[in-house]
Amino acid sequence: MVETQTAHDDVYFIIGEEHRLSEGGTRYETVWTLEPAADADWMVIAKEDENGDPIPGTGSPLNQGVLAY
Do 11 and 43 share a structural domain? Predict the structure, then answer.
């Protein structure tokens, strides 16, 4: 998450998600509960090149960079 006003720049896991409808169903909100992600808590399952294509031998059949822990 990068927030320029306070210069906050860190990595988080989404550990909870809440959805709300209000104003007669015309306003939709999503609230995420975050947990700090230490460098040792995750790994890259696949890597992409500068075009977004999977790099052979880096793992994932999903054709995208995926994080997991």
Answer: no
Number of domains in the chain: 2
**β-bridge pairing 27-36 and 12-22:** antiparallel
Residue reference for tokens 């040792």: 40
Burial of 43 (0-12, 13-18, 19+ CB in 10 A): exposed
pTM of the model: 0.47
**Predicted local confidence at residue 9, as pLDDT:** 86
The reply to whether 30 and 44 lie within a common domain is no
